[in-house]
Amino acid sequence: MSFDNTIPLRTLIDEVMPQLAAAEKLLHNTLRSILAVTRDPAQRTRCEQQQEALDLELFRIRLNFDSLLRRHAGAVAAMAGGGARDAGPVLQLDSAEAEAVRSARRLCEQIKAL
After folding, report:
1. pTM above 0.85, yes or no
2. How far apart are the C-alpha atoms of 38 and 48, rounded to whole Å?
3. What highest taxon heads this organism's lineage (predicted)?
4. I need a surface site. Which of 11, 40, 51, 86 has the fewest CB within 10 A?
């Protein structure tokens, strides 16, 4: 499913955010495992750079998700009170939030492809 400048709140909370958390955990565990066993300085440097880039990208995504959820705090609270069947509203994303959603989905797809 592709989103431009909108996303259903339920999709963000039940799909995008959990998939991102799982992808983050998998990538960090993989990079840590490689760093624990590698003796090649070039490979170690590459892994450390990948980990730094991943951390920066995840930080940017999380900041934008936090901003989005704060802006729509009323909708989040209403959906939480409405139960699991409440789809919640479709959220309007600013350009940074939309890019964060795209980045999160792209990262998750890359992990799935591996």
Report:
1. no
2. 12
3. Bacteria
4. 40
